Amino acid sequence: MYKIKYFSNLSIKDLNTFRVDLTAKKIIFIKNIKSLIYILQICKLYQIPHLILGEGSNVLFLKNYQGIIIVNRIKGIKIVEKSNNWLLHVFSGEKWHDLVKYTLNLGILGLENSALIPGCIGSAAIQNIGAYGLEFKDVCHYVDVMSFKNNSIIRMNKNSCKFSYRNSIFKNQYYSECVVIAVGIKLSKKWQPLIFSELENHMKPKFISAHQIFNIVSKIRTKNLPNLKKIGNAGSFFKNPIIKKKHAEKLICLYNIPYYPQSDGLIKISGGWLIEHCNLKNIQIGDAAIYQKKKLILINKKKATPQEILQLAQIIYRHVLKKFNIHLEPEVDFIGSIKKIKTSDLFTLKNKKIIY
């Protein structure tokens, strides 16, 4: 009935940016909503575990997946011009960086600070991606999701999505209830550059264009981040922790620690600095290591197993907790043999046996 491309018992190495070499019972590529509904109905009828994946840029598979991996390739971009804004409707299988380039070339400005962020549009909403002063929530107008219960598509406005730092309602409460189908993005025609510290060094003269920002961000990210085509990684493995002001003040008194006051009175601390000052510079578990240019990133140097990557992450977590009394929160999702694994089951101060 539907033209669906699928494979059985194949490696998922090319479907996750960590490039862990595991397998899935079945891998299915879908290009339209009807095909997605059809596959989800089969999974529901026969109680088959399933996982919807974009570029696999924010997951760590811990075991061979004993279900169906549905690879989202639902694409399309619709643009409506208003007197003061551009309204974009973007389907979730589009790549984020491709959207940034596409809009910039059309003279639709506002996404340039997020150049070269990996992943698809769906994960942009789920993770509330961000870089250099811009987060997805800043440009989000709405998110269209499809319910797993009745396949109905619901439009959620920005305020209903509960966006926070690298988080949303789709990463938590709605994770097993719906799938992101498309997002609405609203960009003002009155463009103003978002200035960040590294950008100030390039502002000669004071005026800077969106294209220049795009090029500068791309250059910085290319220089400082591992090449996904050569080194397996999922970007920042841990979030920069956000802690209470009283706790932060104690740390600031003891250490010359980078910190960033938040609008809600909390303090964001540099997670990379915490890791660097735990004497973990040269630690390596098998082929799993800390990326030296950016300590929040864990890398698969060649043939790291998921257990090696997880063990390295657990060691980092315990050291930071013991020294600074800060719980580093993983940014990645952990996928077991049939479902997502809770972070709380994997990270603890005690040297527990790895659970997956």
TrEMBL record:
Q: Which residues does the entry assign to the active site, renumbered to this chain?
A: R166, S236 (proton donor), E331
Keyword Secreted on entry: no
Q: Name one GO cellular component term.
A: cytosol
Q: Where is the FAD-binding PCMH-type domain?
A: 20-190
Pathway assigned to this chain's UniProt record: Cell wall biogenesis; peptidoglycan biosynthesis
Q: Name one Pfam family in it.
A: FAD_binding_4
Keywords from the named record: Cell cycle, Cell division, Cell shape, Cell wall biogenesis/degradation, Cytoplasm, FAD, Flavoprotein, NADP, Oxidoreductase, Peptidoglycan synthesis
Q: Extract the InterPro entries matched here.
A: FAD-bd_PCMH, FAD-bd_PCMH-like_sf, FAD-bd_PCMH_sub1, FAD-bd_PCMH_sub2, MurB, MurB_C, MurB_C_sf, Oxid_FAD_bind_N
The EC designation for this entry is 1.3.1.98
The UniProt entry, under SUPFAM superfamilies, shows: FAD-binding/transporter-associated domain-like, Uridine diphospho-N-Acetylenolpyruvylglucosamine reductase, MurB, C-terminal domain
Q: Where in the cell is it found?
A: Cytoplasm
Cofactor or coenzyme needed: FAD
Major enzyme class? oxidoreductase
GO process annotations (BP): cell division; cell wall organization; peptidoglycan biosynthetic process; regulation of cell shape
Task: Give the catalytic activity.
Answer: UDP-N-acetyl-alpha-D-muramate + NADP(+) = UDP-N-acetyl-3-O-(1-carboxyvinyl)-alpha-D-glucosamine + NADPH + H(+)
Q: Which GO terms describe its molecular function?
A: FAD binding; UDP-N-acetylmuramate dehydrogenase activity
Its primary localisation, in coarse terms, equals cytoplasm
Family, according to the entry, reads as follows: Belongs to the MurB family.
Biological role stated in the UniProt entry: Cell wall formation.
Q: What is this protein called?
A: UDP-N-acetylenolpyruvoylglucosamine reductase
Q: What is the species of this protein?
A: Buchnera aphidicola str. USDA
Identify the taxonomic lineage of the organism of origin: Bacteria, Pseudomonadati, Pseudomonadota, Gammaproteobacteria, Enterobacterales
